[in-house]
Write a structure and sequence with these properties.
439 residues; two-stranded antiparallel sheet; DUF1501 domain-containing protein; single chain; alpha/beta; signal; eight-stranded mixed beta sheet; DUF1501
Length: 439
């Protein structure tokens, strides 16, 4: 069967939940055995969560706090708080602010989670463009052509899983190395899992009688076997299996439905619903890495009123993730990274907004990451400063911390730095410039 006819057959078969990039995988041996056991038996973790603050967040209003002398201070970095409102939880500094609905949001989060939190401040994105900044943050490379770290982890550790990489948005380029699932609609997932039901929640609402259903399944299985008999390439055979899984209902998706809560959170914070799906996918053993995404941070006007509530949503989402994960018994096997395209300018523009700024921060939590730690920093106007790579102490002869330094460390933490796939996507760090940002 040639490539064109194969894709045509897939389209006719209704393949919607399996990304077409699964057929473009270039890693040798990636699909040799499509019948490997589930994640719990093949991968010990950790499970990876990447939370993207889309639009460019303002770390000077979060984990690299810089206030002002008062509301009339013309040089104030932020009007939402003064310098005497900056507090500390352990070694982590934060402004003691919140929203009208949750005035102690920052204090509650940082006091509760500082022992598991590591902050990288003064991170130089070398760009103030949305696409390039987001790509740099999540792939470790400013230029195009690299998959996200989440995709690389899924490609190495989860290639046997049909939903190893689940994304709600943000930079999720795979470069064809792994299938990506981009569906946060749990209703759609339910219909894919139970295509033979008029109502996915009702076991009795079948389109066909049991006799007709058996005949249909036998015919589908026979056709699949005929297709498999004509193909020799393991990755094409795996693709055929995925095609029929999407047509007949996937056992993995059925497991996901079983782990989802009876009612998803319908509150104002969209991260909570994404997190509920993520935890269900992790517990079902069908997902290794996931992108969470929340936008609205590109606040060129009325910065404080628009930006701070979204930062509160991030803190609420992170707290919700850890609380739920701990309750479900999987909280000790996560790595969570929270970052953004870039930062916001020091001070305000003529519309009380803040524009794009290349210097930002990143927050990390979870397995293998020592908490209550701040690495790097910025000066009083949020300019990056130089750090000695070996000692991580401020030094005029040092260098800026960049995403590549962090990604080199994270690849090691994920256990993928020695994999042959990394030769295709190397992290360029000159001798003597390597930084251990996880020590």
């Amino acid at each position: 069967m040639d490539r064109r006819n194969f894709f045509k057959l897939m389209s006719l078969a209704g393949l919607a939940a399996v990304s077409p990039t699964v057929f473009a995988g270039r890693r040798p041996g990636a699909f040799k055995n499509p019948n490997l056991p589930p994640l719990a038996e093949t991968y010990g973790g950790p499970l990876w969560v990447f939370l993207n603050a889309g639009g460019g967040w303002d770390p000077t209003s979060l984990c690299d706090p810089k206030g002002g002398k008062g509301p009339e201070d013309p040089e104030a970095m932020n009007h939402a708080f003064t310098t005497d409102q900056i507090e500390a939880a352990g070694n982590i500094r934060y402004p003691n602010i919140g929203t009208e609905e949750n005035p102690t949001a920052y204090q509650t989060f940082f006091q509760k989670h500082y022992k598991r939190l590591r902050v990288i401040n003064g991170l130089d994105m070398q760009s103030n463009g949305h696409d390039s900044g987001s790509r740099h943050c999540w792939s470790g490379r400013l230029a195009e052509g690299y998959p996200s770290l989440a995709a690389l982890i899924a490609a190495v550790h989860g290639h046997a899983l049909p939903m190893s990489y689940l994304s709600f948005g943000g930079y999720d380029d795979t470069q064809g190395q792994v299938a990506r699932t981009r569906s946060g609609n749990t209703g759609a997932l339910a219909r894919i899992a139970y295509p033979d039901r008029a109502n996915p929640e009702d076991e009795a609402s079948l389109f066909h009688s049991s006799v007709a259903g058996d005949l249909i399944r036998k015919a589908q299985e026979a056709r699949k076997e005929r297709l498999l008999a004509t193909e020799q390439l393991p990755r094409v055979q795996n693709a055929v299996g995925n095609m029929y899984a999407s047509r007949t209902g996937s056992n993995e998706l059925k497991k996901l439905q079983q782990y989802l809560p009876a009612e998803l959170d319908n509150g104002p914070n969209p991260l909570r619903r994404q997190i509920q799906v993520a935890l269900a996918a992790f517990r079902a053993g069908i997902t290794i890495s996931i992108n969470l995404d929340i936008g609205g941070f590109d606040t060129h006007g009325d910065h404080d009123a628009n930006h701070i509530p979204r930062l509160v949503n991030i803190l609420d989402g992170l707290d919700f993730l850890w609380t739920e994960a701990d309750m479900q018994g999987i909280g000790d096997n996560f790595v969570v990274l929270c970052g953004s395209d870039f930062g916001r300018t020091p001070g305000y523009n003529d519309t009380n907004g803040k524009d794009h700024w290349a210097i930002t921060s990143l927050m990390m939590m979870g397995k293998g990451i020592k908490g209550d730690k701040v690495i790097g920093g910025s000066d009083e106007r949020h300019n990056a400063v130089n750090w000695d790579p070996g000692t991580l102490k401020q030094s005029d002869s040092g260098i800026h911390i960049e995403p590549r330094h962090l990604h080199a460390n994270l690849r090691g933490l994920a256990g993928i730095d020695g994999h042959e796939l990394m030769k295709q996507y190397p992290i360029a760090i000159e001798k003597g410039d390597a930084m251990n940002l996880l020590a």
